[in-house]
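Let's practice the habit of predicting before peeking. Look at the sequence and jot down your guess about where helices and strands might fall. Then scroll down.
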Amino acid sequence: MVLELNEENLQSEELLALMKRAGETCLFCENIPHDDSSAEVSVSFVTPGEIQQINREYRDKDSVTDVLSFPQYENREEMAEEEYLCLGDVIICPERAEEQAEEYGHSYTREMVYLMVHSMFHLLGYDHMNEEDKKIMRAKEEKVMTFMEIER
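Done guessing? Here is the structure:
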C-alpha cells in the first residue's frame, strides 16, 4: 500500500511506517488483495483551524475534529472491479491527536495509528452512525490494533 503524504507537518518516519502497516493490516483483515503497488491512501496532516474548516465545509459541523475520511468508493462492489485501489483521502489533525492521547492516557503514536485504522475502515465502507454499526467497526479496529500489538 502506498501512503501519499502532503509536504507540510510531516510526522516521523517510524510513525509513518506504523501508519502504513496499519493500513495494510486493515486490508489484510478485510481480505482485500493488495501489495505495495496496488492500493493507495492519501494522508494529509493539518492544523486545528484547517480541519475545522474542512469539517464545516463537507460535514456541516463547525468544530475541530481529530480525523476526516473521504472514501473513493461507494461500496465494496466498486472496489472489486478495480485493479488498482485508490481508496480515498484521510485528513488528520496531529494537534488534536496529541490532546486525545493525553486525555485517554496513551501514547501519541497509539492515537495516530488508531486514527489511521479508524479512517481505513471508513474508506472500506464502515461507519458508526448507529450502535450496531459502531460495535462492528470498533471490533474491527480493536482486532487490527491487537494484531499490531498496539493495545490500550
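How did you do? The first strand starts at residue 2 and ends at 5.
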